[in-house]
Structures are given as structure tokens and as C-alpha cells.
Amino acid sequence: MSFFKKLFGRSKQNKSTADGVDKIIGEETYLDYTIQAIEMKQSGEYILAGIISKNIGDEVKTHKFIRADRLHGQEQAVSTTIKKGQQIIDQQGDSLFR
To answer: Rounded to an integer, what is the distance from CA 9 to the centroid of its chain?
Structure first.
């Protein structure tokens, strides 16, 4: 399996639950956005992964992000994901949903 497929693919190792729905392990509101840390593990380590969402009009817009960072525990994964989500929002704002 190629490096990129392992990193970005949704293999059985990366799926959070048996039905493929992401398991939320932490959540925080930042400005008008919601940042959710999702559980994604590989080889016993957490992968930095999250979802940023915002209500725009009558629609909920979402953006999923996954980074190559490996974290040793759930608490560290949640706090790092929230910080990364805030950084993405600060840099891109609503343009992240285009």
C-alpha cells in the first residue's frame, strides 16, 4: 500500500467505528465555529484529526482535516486538534468551506 493511501485512505485501522462514523472525542466552540476532535488511531497512536463546522444560513458547512502528527494519548490528541482547528479558522475563515 502506498504512503499516501495509508495517510489519507480510510482503511479499517483509521475508521473510528464499525459503521464508519467518526467518533467525537472532544469538542469546543471557537468564534462561530465548532471544532470536533475525532478518534483516529494507527499503530496505537492517535492521529491529529478533526472536523470544523459552522452554520451558514440554513446550512451546516463542514471541513474535515487530518494531519500527519502522531500523539500518544487521547487528551493530547483533543487539545492539539482544537489548537490546530483554531489556527485553521484564524488563517482561512469561511473560505475554508469553498
So the answer is: 14
| Under 8 Å between Cβ of 19 and 26 | no
Q: Which residues have a Cβ under 8 Å from the Cβ of 82 and sit 6 or more positions away? A: 26, 28, 30, 35, 37, 50
Kindly report, residue by residue over 8-59, the tens digit of the pLDDT: 554 444 455 566 788 999 999 999 999 999 999 999 999 999 999 999 999 9
pLDDT given for residue 38 in this prediction: 97
d(CA 85, CA 80): 9
**Cα 29 to Cα 3, 14, 20, 51, 52, distances in angstroms:** 33, 25, 24, 12, 10
30 closest CA partner among 54, 62, 63: 54
Task: Please give the pLDDT value at position 1.
Answer: 47
All three cell numbers of 83: 489548537
What domains does the chain contain, in order, with CATH numbers?
Answer: 3-97 (3.30.160)
